[in-house]
Specification:
single chain, alpha/beta, Aminopeptidase, Alpha-Beta Plaits, 2 domains, six-stranded mixed β-sheet, 10 helices
């Protein structure tokens, strides 16, 4: 049975305020490496409401915001960790991506699904605690981090410099009826193929076309055979794609000389790998495949860049696989409060494809000793014919309430105690 305090907390969750702050965040373009405007907006939002607010300069001129609802002392702390960076926009939008709009159960706008809807839910959960007047023993830490889409730049900074917490939830957009505790490892790397440049009038004089040789490497990279132990709950892994390619003259891929044979061609490769594998084993398997190709292709020369140079604005860090033990308190707490709000069991717990094929900041938090999981509102999928991104409003509402109750539970738990919720 739900306590009087829990009912009071749920009554304090404001869906209207949650949607308003989500709209404000959507209006701010915050592509990866360009999140600082969103950080300043959030810092002002929390200062006005009396939170302890910190701006962290993760890289020169690049900021993330930490807001803390300080507890009275003696209790466990909880971090709600979400990223402010958003993905590049796909073609095919039928509306202005920077003007949020609502149609039925959908809140549309750039970054709404990944993950400004999720950011709004953790704000709504914290605001419900603050406005209800309920006092927590432990701190509730809200981390609005940069560079998750680069492999976790902001959360890695947090793990090194703090603040951290006893437990954490990351509201990645995999649906309010899924509690995900398993995530793929992710590594992005560059394969450079080297050639020998000649003018079009002198092709016969020893030219080696890097682009042509890359065309032979791409099928190999797309069909890599990795050493691994299969998992029934992750049937589509490991997997790899070649997601970008550029070729030209010189190591800067100069494109002003298409009258010359390309002598430098780069393919960016994304690999998702299983628990039990490592980024190093992935690299070894790629090298083996390219060495075998080298035996069959004359003048095939290559290099591997791992991690990627920041100039690519892709993953500059590795996310190792994450697999939370089923007996961790944070899982029990989220599950109990999900049941309390919905009266049902989740659709999925643990490994839930395709969500578990993604990497996320749980990798870094877990490595830093913070038990954590993924629980956030879902929305549009890239398989849909219209690219307009949206988050589901009923998912946001449910997630905010479950997270508010989870914070009430975790942050009133005595500091030295872990028991069943």
């Amino acid at each position: 049975m739900m306590t009087v305090e829990a009912r009071k907390l749920l009554a304090s969750v404001s869906d209207t305020a949650m949607i308003d702050v989500a709209k404000d965040l959507i209006r701010i373009p915050s592509f990866k490496t360009e999140e600082t405007e969103a950080a300043y907006f959030l810092a002002e939002f929390f200062r006005e409401r009396g939170y302890i607010t910190k701006m962290q300069e993760v890289e020169p001129g690049r900021f993330q915001t930490i807001a803390i609802l300080r507890g009275t002392g003696g209790g466990k702390s909880l971090m709600l960790n979400g990223h402010t960076d958003i993905d590049p926009l796909a073609m095919g939008w039928s509306r202005d991506p920077w003007k949020p709009s609502i149609e039925g159960n959908r809140l549309y706008g750039a970054g709404s699904r990944n993950m400004k809807g999720g950011l709004a839910t953790i704000i709504a959960a914290a605001e419900a605690i603050r406005t209800s007047g309920i006092k927590l023993k432990g701190d509730l830490v809200l981390a609005f981090v940069v560079g998750e889409l680069q492999g976790g730049v902001g959360t890695s900074y947090l793990c090194e410099y703090g603040p951290l917490a006893d437990m954490a939830v990351v509201p990645e957009p995999f649906g309010a009826h899924n509690i995900i505790t398993v995530s793929a490892g992710v590594v992005e790397l560059a394969v450079n193929v080297l050639g020998s440049s000649r003018h079009i009038s002198r092709l016969e004089e020893g030219s080696v076309d890097a682009i042509e040789n890359m065309s032979k490497a791409i099928p190999v990279l797309k069909n890599l055979q990795f050493r691994h132990s299969p998992r029934e709950d992750l049937p589509g892994m490991p997997r790899a794609i070649v997601g970008a390619i550029v070729g030209g003259r010189g190591r800067d891929h100069n494109l002003r000389g298409p009258n010359f044979v390309s002598d430098f061609c780069t393919a960016l490769v994304d690999v998702r790998f299983l628990p039990g594998m490592s980024a190093e084993s992935v690299r070894e398997d790629i090298e083996t495949a390219l060495e075998n190709l080298k035996k069959t292709v004359e003048d095939f020369h290559y290099e591997i860049e791992m991690p990627l140079d920041p100039k690519y604005k892709a993953f500059t860090m590795v996310m190792e696989p994450f697999d939370l033990p089923r007996d961790e308190y944070i899982l029990k707490s989220v599950l109990v409060h999900y049941r309390a709000v919905t009266g049902r069991e989740p659709d999925g717990i643990g490994a839930v494809p395709p969500g578990s094929y993604s990497g996320d900041d749980t990798s870094h938090l877990w490595a830093a000793g913070v038990p954590c999981l993924l629980y956030g509102p879902g929305g549009s999928q890239e398989s849909e014919t219209v690219q307009d991104e949206y988050t589901r409003i009923d998912d946001m509402s449910l997630v905010a309430r479950v997270l508010a109750l989870t914070a009430l539970d975790v942050c009133t738990l005595p500091e030295q105690e872990i028991s069943s919720p």
